[in-house]
Structures are given as C-alpha cells and as structure tokens.
Amino acid sequence: MLLGCIADDFTGATDLANNLVRNGMRTVQTIGVPATPGADMRDVDAVVVALKTRTIAPEQAVAQSLAALEWLRAAGCEQFYFKYCSTFDSTDKGNIGPVTDALMTALGTDFTIACPAFPATGRTIFRGHLFVNDQLLSDSSMQHHPLTPMTDANLVAVLQRQTSRKVGLLRYDTIAAGAQAVQTRIDELRAEGVEIAVADSLHDQDLHALAAGCAGLPLLTAGSGVAIGLPANFKAAGKLNQSGNAATLPAISGPAVIISGSCSAATLAQIADYGDRGPRYQVDPMRLAQGADETRAVIAEAVSLARQAQEQGKTALIHASAEPEQVKAAQQAIGREAAGEQVEHALASCAAELAAHGTRRFVVAGGETSGAVVQALQVSALRIGPQIDPGVPWTETVGATPLAVTLKSGNFGATDFFSKALAMLDAQA
Predict the structure, then answer these.
(1) What's the whole-number mean pLDDT along residues 157-172?
(2) Which end of the chain has less Cβ packing within 10 Å, N or C?
C-alpha cells in the first residue's frame, strides 16, 4: 500500500479516490474504519477511509481521524493524506485545524500543506484567498451554507483561528517555478517556524508541481486536487505501475433512484434541469418534526412514488433540497441539528427500503446525505469506477449483491449531472 487517505465526508472521499484512479492508482474507499486491522490490500495502491467528521465536535473528529490513521499505518501505507472540502468547509473552531494538528503529532512531522484548490471545479487559491469560480469564497453561495457558512476567504486567517501552530503561505510564484522551488521554500518556511502552509494554486500544473515538491512529506492536507499529482511521485520512485484498467467496473443494471439532501446552488440547478424526466418527491422537514408516525408516512410516500416510477421505466428524484430561505426557516422552527438529522434519516430510510425492493443504482447528492445513505445501505467499501463529472465517479459496492452508487458533493457536477450519470450506466449495461 502506498497512500493512506482520511476524508472528512463520504462524497469528498469519492472525489479523492476518483482522482487517484484516473491517474492510475487502484483505489478502494472504505466506509468508516474497517473492522479488520491491517486488512489484506495486496491488489490496492491507495485506500481512502471515508469518515463523517466535517460537522461533528472537534474532539470526536480527532478521535475518529486518529483511528483511521492507526488502521492505515497497520496496512503499510507510506504517505498519508487528510482530505477536506474544496471550499474549506469548517467553522472557526474546526475541524480542519484540530484534525491536522492531531495527525501531525501522531506522525511526528513538523510541516504540512493546506490546499483545497481544485481548478477543474472552479476552486483556486491566490495569495492565500480561496475563489469559487470568479468569486471570493466569502462572496459565493458558501457564505449562506446552513452548517458551515464560510464568511472569510483568507485561508491563512481561517486556519490560524483553528490551530496553535504557525500558519504561513506558499505563494503562486514559487509553485509556478516548479517542484524544486517548492522544496526550497518549504525549507525556508520551516526555518521561519511555519508548520502549516496554505498553498496557492491556479492551474492543474500548479497541483502537479506542488505534489512533486511535497513528495517527501509524511502528511498532506488538501482537497482532492493535489491528489492528481501523487501517482506520478510513486511512479517516479518505481513503486507504481501504470494501471490502464484502474477505473473499470462491471456493468450494473436495474432500477434506479436519485436522492438529494444538498441545498447548494449547483444541486438546485441540477434538480431543476432534471425536470420531468421522472417524478419528484420533496421531503418536508416540518412534517418529519411531527413525530415518528408522520416520518414513516413521508418515507412510505416517497418509496411508493419511486417504485411506481421504476415500474414505468423512469427514475424518481427524492429530495429535501430547498432554497436557503426555506432551509433557515425549518432550522429556526426545529433546530439546525435536529432538522438535518431528521432529513438525513428519512432520505437514508428511503434508500434502504428501495434497496430491499430491488433498486440497484443510486445517485446521491450532498455530503451529509451520502454518508447517511451508504450507512443505511450497510456499505463497507466501494470500488472506484469511471468519472461522470470532475470529482464524481460511479462506484461499485463490495459485497454479495453489488450496487452502483455515485456520491456527489453538493457543489460538484454539471447542470445535467443527474441525467448524465444515469445515461453512463445505461450505456454500460
């Protein structure tokens, strides 16, 4: 095993695994820390442990991340990668800083980078400031995120509020000068007492240069973008053979469903684009708040609609996605955490019931929703398949009855993502 990765949500894990597979690393994504210590991974180059730690208490996030690290070290990984969102989703108290601190201490390293950039999806960093397409992070729709509102685009400042370690900047001009310049600047930053450096990145070539310059670091922290350059490091060291079939998966046919809990602008546009290709059922959090009986009624209605659609050769969309104003109103009435938990439970229950009735293909949007769904489906691991859109592949569950599952970050995917994802599987079947 070459690379051991810890992701703070399930869609982010898939995003990272997708980049590794596309660049020739045979990759398995586990759902949580595997129960078997150091499980046999002889045919795998990289493992991504998918956690659900983005919005939980920092102490819990640290404990789960360290457990994942312990498992990956036992599996023989040579380098480690802490993956978070390309919009640096967090609060002032964590969890990016606290988890990074803990991993650095456990690995005995005094330096790492922080780089959520992923230019292919419009996430770039210039002079330490994160842009979402042409807007500063703080001017983008992320400023209104219901769980992790991002109101400061200065990542050096954001991260410094989360850690006692000195945070510095690895500027774009250094990275543009190439891997050797990156290594030299890292040495200089170390001498200045910097332990975590936010790294600029404007283009994919910047990510490749950054990855090459960080080849010797025990730990990298980043979005999925930096991962595109890591396979080349292992190839250059003679440790990785080119795997031309790394993304090949068997075709999975059968009934499908789309489940969305994300309220991002990108996902709302995707829902609108899906139009009348299949029926829609919107989960109302206010009904869920009325108690178990009403929750069961909502789930039954959604499942019935989806099954009727499948009988007609269509794919239903079950969603709790709504405009920010609607989400805030529900949160104010129910409580932010309660509203989120109730919605996730309902959507996950719909997925589990549909799977029990023969649904084999699941398109899931939203990090928290994806986590709840794969847990409800009792998925232990995923093999990573072909890419649908940048950062979003199809995957196959590991088990007696394989399912096709795509886990899409709320912010990712083209406007026609839902129909495109289903069409890709139809073409393979």
Answers:
(1) 97
(2) C
**What is the DSSP code string of 242-255?**
--TTTT------S-
pTM equals: 0.81
Over range 225-254, report the average pLDDT: 86
The superfamily (CATH) of domain 3-236 is Putative sugar-binding, N-terminal domain (3.40.50.10840)
Q: Residue 321 in contact with residue 262, Cβ under 8 Å?
A: yes
d(CA 397, CA 395): 7
Instruction: List strand residue ranges (DSSP E) for 316-360, in order.
Output: 317-319
- Evaluate if residue 385 carries a pLDDT over 80: yes
Torsion of CA 235, 240, 241, 242, to 10 degrees: -70
Q: Where are the domains of the chain?
A: 3-236, 256-428
Distances (CA, A) of 106 to 30, 64, 103, 165, 170: 21, 13, 5, 15, 24
Q: How far apart are CA 79 and CA 73, in angstroms?
A: 9
Confidence of residue 249 (pLDDT cuts 50, 70, 90): confident
Question: What is residue 244's predicted lDDT score, i.e. its pLDDT?
Answer: 58
pLDDT > 90? residue 411: no
Average pLDDT of the chain to the nearest whole number:
93
For 57-146, strand residue ranges (E) read 79-83, 112-115, 123-126, 129-132, 135-136
Q: Find, among 409, 262, 372, the residue nearest to 323 by Cα.
A: 262
pLDDT higher than threshold 60 for residue 24: yes
pLDDT band, residue 243 (cuts 50/70/90): low
DSSP 165: S
Question: Which candidate, 337, 363, 342, places its Cα nearest to that of 296?
Answer: 342
CB neighbour list of residue 114: distance below 8 Å, 6 or more residues apart: 96, 100, 155, 159, 167, 196, 197, 198, 199, 221, 222
Q: Given this structure, which CATH class describes domain 256-428? A: alpha beta
> What whole-number distance in Å separates Cα of residue 140 and Cα of residue 143?
6
Secondary element (H or E) of residue 198: strand 196-199
**pLDDT, position 242:** 62
CA distance 341 to 288: 10
Beta bridge partners, 318, equal: 259, 281
Cα gap 73→313, rounded to integer Å: 47
Q: Is the peptide bond before 18 cis (omega within 30 degrees of 0)?
A: no
Question: How would you classify the pairing of strands 135-136 and 3-7?
Answer: unpaired
